[in-house]
Amino acid sequence: MRLLLLWILNAIALLAVTYLLPSIQVSSFGTALLAALGLGLINTLVRPVLAILTLPITVITLGIFYLVLNGLLFWLASAFIPGFEVHGFASAVVGAILYGVIAWALSALIPNNKG
After folding, report:
1. Could you report the per-residue pLDDT of 93-108, keeping only the tens digit for each?
2. By the 8 A CB rule, do 36 and 102 touch?
3. Number of domains, the chain
């Protein structure tokens, strides 16, 4: 149940990003749900591999390259999901940062039932 709620909150976070950045567009709530799922899969499957491969440049840049990596993965998700558009690399980086912050804040509202 918690996973389903997190998925919906991530879709809402993506819609909030589209409200804040006009260069990122989502055509509907259903597309936002699909994009949130796609972003979750990319972040689960692709990001760890790329993070390991780009570790030297991430260390040299003191971690700033990790923001670039987040933007690239956000942009990659928009390439595969129809109705989810990101116009430009800078928009992808800023959008990924906003998406992460908003999704984190929304997920903090859900109590964790461990214990």
Report:
1. 999 999 999 999 999 9
2. no
3. 1
